[in-house]
User: Fold this.
Amino acid sequence: MAGAWIKIYDASNNLEAHSIKGMLENACIEVHLSGESLGAAAGELPADVLQVGVWVHEEQKQVARELLQAYENRNCHDWVCPQCTERNEGQFEICWQCGHDKP
Ligand SMILES: [Zn+2]
Assistant:
């Protein structure tokens, strides 16, 4: 495939990088991660504190960005518990107050 690689996201750790990679690959987008091998090479920093760049082909960046946006919205939007009306952060799948599932 022609075209340059474009970095579209800086993941804060390997786990996030790989979940994004998996999500994009599910949409048939080729993904390259950068930085994840640095930790192993240095031998001192745990790999999970490194920033990991998520790269895609330039011609797929638009689709990838849209998917990323949906991904971030899913993770970052606060939600209000329908049972106890407590406000919860987006990454939590259950209410921290009463344990009710995220709607
Ligand atoms: Zn609740």
Q: What stands out?
A: The beta strands are 5-11, 31-34, 52-57, 79-80, 87-88. Helices lie at 14-26, 38-42, 61-76. The mean pLDDT is 84.
